[in-house]
Task: inverse folding
């Protein structure tokens, strides 16, 4: 598959290799309409030998079921459809099943053709999935697709979620921790200011960096992240804001690497939490797969989601660049989970 350095907008999604069907197409059902983005933009003659549809057991939603029904109707015509139902709190068994089945289907292929739509996969689940695929040497063979939201249902600056139910280390990313070092908390911020502030208060770090996407997806969205995270910005200070690309995972990786490995910050233990965009999460994985020292990944599950503030509509769809870090030592400390 041809390497790209910038996201490419896709108005229509074709087979990766012309007339040849893809081997596997993966997508995820959600209450958000944008989960339909890549499915609706599939070319009329698009085919895949297998289609993996991910869905969740928790937070039952009539809108999600409606979206999934449409996805199944369209995907049934694309290829053999398999549903994978993930327990939101205990995702590893099914994620392992997905990775094993995907690997089985491409193991004998000289040039595997795999597409994964990451638009609405839960971020920490996606990071575990990436590790499971990377262990099997698959990540650099994947076409990553992403659909933006068109907008949000309300124009009021309300958070996407409220409070923190629990804070936990993301499985397979426990990393190494030097007890002699102070803590640097690294937050990739989005529209969930309550979660960011709760993470900061719980971790009580020595230092904190706030990564904010710039430019925003749309000009009229500029400044939203700052407003929604005004609480933590007022505590930490604007000088701790680092601007990071919103859409290009490769640039996100490069920015994280240049900032966190600088002498100013490399002296700390790094505790990182992804609250930003899904392309930023893919870039974060690229950084984590380079095995930075003394780095732990955490996640804070919200008390509840702000359902009236879910995104609305289907925005632009993108092919995202992905570059496997070169020369990184493989971290085998957590592979027994996979």
Result:
């Amino acid at each position: 598959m041809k390497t790209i350095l910038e996201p490419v907008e896709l108005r229509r999604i074709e087979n990766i290799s012309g007339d040849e069907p893809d081997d596997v197409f993966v997508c995820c059902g959600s209450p958000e309409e944008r989960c339909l983005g890549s499915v609706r933009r599939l070319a009329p003659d698009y085919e895949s030998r297998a289609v993996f549809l991910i869905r969740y057991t928790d937070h039952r939603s009539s809108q999600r079921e409606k979206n999934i029904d449409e996805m199944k109707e369209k995907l049934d015509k694309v290829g053999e459809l398999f549903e994978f139902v993930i327990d939101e709190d205990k995702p590893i068994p099914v994620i392992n099943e997905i990775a094993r089945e995907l690997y089985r289907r491409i193991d004998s292929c000289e040039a595997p053709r795999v597409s994964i739509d990451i638009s609405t996969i839960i971020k920490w689940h996606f990071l575990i999935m990436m590790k499971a695929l990377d262990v099997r040497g698959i990540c650099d063979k994947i076409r990553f697709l992403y659909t933006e939201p068109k907008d949000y249902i309300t124009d009021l600056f309300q958070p996407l979620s409220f409070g923190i139910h629990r804070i936990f280390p993301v499985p397979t990313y426990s990393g190494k921790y030097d007890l002699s070092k102070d803590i640097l908390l690294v937050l990739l911020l989005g529209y969930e200011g309550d979660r960011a502030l709760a993470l900061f208060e719980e971790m009580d770090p020595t230092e904190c960096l706030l990564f904010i996407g710039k430019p925003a997806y749309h000009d009229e969205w500029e400044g939203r992240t700052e407003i929604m995270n005004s609480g933590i910005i007022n505590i930490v200070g604007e000088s701790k804001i680092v601007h990071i690309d919103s859409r290009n995972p490769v640039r996100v990786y490069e920015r994280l690497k240049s900032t966190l490995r600088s002498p100013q910050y490399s002296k700390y233990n790094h505790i990182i939490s992804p609250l930003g965009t899904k392309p930023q999460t893919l870039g974060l994985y690229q950084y984590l797969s380079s095995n930075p020292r003394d780095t732990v990944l955490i996640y804070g599950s919200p008390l509840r989601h702000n359902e009236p503030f879910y995104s609305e509509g289907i925005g632009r769809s993108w092919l995202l660049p992905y570059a496997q870090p070169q020369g990184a030592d493989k971290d085998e400390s957590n592979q027994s989970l996979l």
The longest strand covers residues 142-152. DSSP finds nine helices and 15 strands in the chain. Residues 183 and 205 are 5 Å apart (CA to CA).
